[in-house]
Amino acid sequence: MTKFDAAGYVARHFKWSVVPPGIGTITLSRPERKNPLTFDSYAELRDLFRNLVYAEGVKAVVITGDGGNFCSGGDVHEIIGPLVRRQEEGDMRGLLDFTRMTGDLVKAMRAAPQPIIAAVDGVCAGAGAILAMASDLRIGTPRAKTAFLFVRVGLAGADMGACSMLPRIIGAGRAAELLYTGRAMSAQEGEQWGFFNRLAEPETLLSEAQELAKSIAEGPTFAHAMTKKCLHQEWSMGLDEAIEAEAQAQAICMQTRDFARAYRAFVEKSKPVFEGN
Prior knowledge:
By secondary structure, the protein is an alpha/beta fold. It has 11 helices and 9 strands. The strands form 2 sheets. The protein has a 6-stranded mixed beta sheet with strand order 1-2-3-4-6-9, sandwiched between helices. The protein has a 3-stranded mixed beta sheet with strand order 5-7-8.
């Protein structure tokens, strides 16, 4: 199997590091524009998450933004303008290629075996809100403002899986309100509604997200990947199918050495040290 050298990877359109060891950190870094995405950064993020399937040294991922903001969405000048020109030229294929590419980023995030934690401060809008939504866990700050503002530019709220994922996180009625109105969800609403797992102060946000990632990374990596796969796949299953899928998943996990390590540690009254196999 091809391995991906995550520690040696040099990102071109955002910051990437594997520090502390085992924790990959993506930092969107165009602070002067509140960290918007471009065609290139979309594609590079998609490709990075696809490659993380083959990165044995990365056990959890944190995604955050520079300069007190998470992400302001697609860059108005570098994405929206060119898309309007494609529309004016009747380039339906070009428009569909773009929307499929952005959707592929969400697919890649959900397919990556590592749990993903979004550390959200300040503006979290449009595609930025989608990045947070597509993560497994989210920590916000009291000043985080999350807006699925596609309707404000004449588009449907149905973007990059929002109509599927957001109702499952915060409920159908609340999701419908945000997607129809494009209004910003406050940090307090986000915490109360279950979008944010918790809130942190801006100065401790990244360290708390990385500490949470570290605690996850110290667990059974293979089993965490199985949990993520089941959480994703069981959306479209009935209860009987889900129970059978989980029976098979658990039987597979019982074949790992980590399962035996946990048992021996329990017998010895010590803390298990998981190795991911």
